[in-house]
Amino acid sequence: MAEDIFTPQTNAADYNDDSIVHLEDMEHIRLRPGMYIGKLGDGSSHDDGIYVLIKEVIDNSIDEFTSGFGKKIEVKINFAERRVSIRDYGRGIPLGKLVEAVSKLNTGAKYDSKVFQKSVGLNGVGTKAVNALSSYFRVQSFRDGKTRWAEFAEGKLSDDSGIVADNSTDTGTLVEFVPDSKLFGNYHFISEYVERRIWNYAYLNRGLTMYYNDRRYYSKNGLLDLLEHNLQSDPLYPIIHIKDGDFEAAFTHINGQNNDYYYSFVNGQHTTEGGTHQSAFREAYARVVKEFIKKDYAPEVIRGGLVCALCVRIQEPVFEAQTKTKLGSTHLEPNKVDGSNDSPLLKTYVLDILKRHLDNYLHIHADTAEALLNKINANEKERKEIAGIKKVAREASKKASLNNRKLRDCHVHYNTNHARRLESTIFITEGDSASGSITKSRDVDTQAVFSLRGKPKNTYSISKVDVYKNEELNLLHNALDIDDSLDNLRYNNVVIATDADVDGMHIRLLLLTFFLRFYPELISSGHVYILQTPLFRVRNKQKTTYCYTDDERVAAIKATPGAEITRFKGLGEISPEEFKNFIGKDMRLDPVLLHKEFDTDRTLTFYMGENTLERREFIMQNLRVEDDESIVVA
Length: 634
Fold this sequence. Notes:
Layout: H1 25-31, H2 34-37, H3 49-66, E1 72-78, E2 83-88, H4 98-103, H5 126-132, E3 134-143, E4 146-153, E5 156-160, E6 164-165, E7 172-179, H6 181-184, H7 191-204, E8 209-212, E9 215-217, H8 223-230, E10 240-244, E11 247-253, E12 261-266, E13 269-270, H9 276-293, H10 299-303, E14 306-312, H11 346-364, H12 366-403, E15 407-408, E16 425-430, H13 431-441, E17 447-452, H14 464-469, H15 471-480, E18 493-497, H16 502-518, H17 520-524, E19 528-532, E20 536-539, E21 544-547, H18 550-559, E22 564-567, H19 576-579, E23 588-591, H20 600-608, H21 613-622, E24 623-625, E25 631-633
Parallel strand pairs: 1-8, 12-14, 16-17, 16-18, 18-19
Antiparallel strand pairs: 1-2, 2-7, 3-4, 3-7, 4-5, 4-6, 8-9, 10-11, 11-14, 12-13, 15-17, 19-23, 20-21, 20-22, 24-25
Helix pairs in contact: 1-5, 3-5, 3-7, 7-8, 9-11, 12-15
């Protein structure tokens, strides 16, 4: 009955004076870490909290550099101890306020725009969150021939040296911390994620030298270097590099990509979810090129295959969350106290720059203009070829989604503003038995399951039209909702969950080929993972150990007298009750990473193209025989 909806869940007497609780700054951060660093995570994902902690400290050092102080930043990670050390050579935190600067919210110099212009850290939160979420935190400032250091545990001050004399001539700040395993669990740092961030800082701050575990990172050409180092295919024309005041962009087109893709930044902050500056560029770029070619093509046709690195610097930017992944500012400068605003609109500022620079460039460089027009014409031709079948395919996918159980969806999606959106995950499984176990043990709020019939089609040599004609692939990209833009992606984590045998490995390769061929940005943005499930279960009446490697199995047998050993040959053999252990808080995910040196075209040709003598020779040389006489590739 309707009145039952509002039935009280507790007694009125339970809500009393004791219900009103005051939390100190550090306590609040530890109780609600998601408000400050997004999700926690174990380090498997590039946006896990342990990397946000590193970013927050480095951001302060970058703000020193952009203010004209300190041209070197040193980052070190002791992977065994999980200890992070970050040293800059800026002005150093004022010694008298050192403790407050790292432990009191809403305390800092970033509120004074005369001291910090166009900085990244604005809210006085970052370093305090690092302090609160670390089991060990130490800060030391060197300034005016003096120094002071303070140590904390879980945000609580444990030691303070006071201000003492210092013989060092170098000024600056040193921060060391160990993320708290009580909060982050059995976490680990993935060096590639850290290195990628270090490179981005170097690209965006010409003149700055970064050191990561004693390796030097330096960029001479800014975003031009970023794009050259990250392109997975050869550019169709030389990269266009525009720098004007607080705006910088480098861009080109590539084949094999249907949408436009961006590495976007604001004041050095990597805005992975874009924002108003990225929207301004997309709109302005399409408009300028459309006017140049004098053809009324749709914006998505003009931008199809565009890859761009973009950065703007604005005063007091407004982000949509503390993690600063999406810009919300519409003007170059903030509103005045009285609410008025005569600052230029961000989209007008970007359009004016592109009108002047891009239009001139295309008129001067006829070869580039011709290559660009050829790409746009090819995009339009493909659009027309797909248009008819795309409509039929979408109708078919809608009907199939209603009438089959291929997709068991979840409630929370990545393309929403839900508090748990970063946890949204889709498992792509092989067959009904594997998907059945995951479906019964999953978190229905954040975890979806897509079940393959078997091995999907090899997409290496097919066209996008063929993808729409293939029911299974069509249903898959519709489930992800990535056909028009990665902005619509429904799941933050796309997890390939196949058996750890030859067939399972083959399905992994087929899925990765599909993503690399048609949606490479899904991988380059860090959304694709491989689920690791145990190969063995070793147990007796007192103890159960799940082993992911043969070495773990041997160690578990030694530690478990009278053990019974079970070999899991497929995901379907693992009961739903057990599967909860492998897709919950202790889930092991291996990220699919693209290194700068990775040659996508050559790799796909070798492994997924026509059978060749070269590949046959490689297979024959790398075959090995396991104890159970099954043959696998080394």
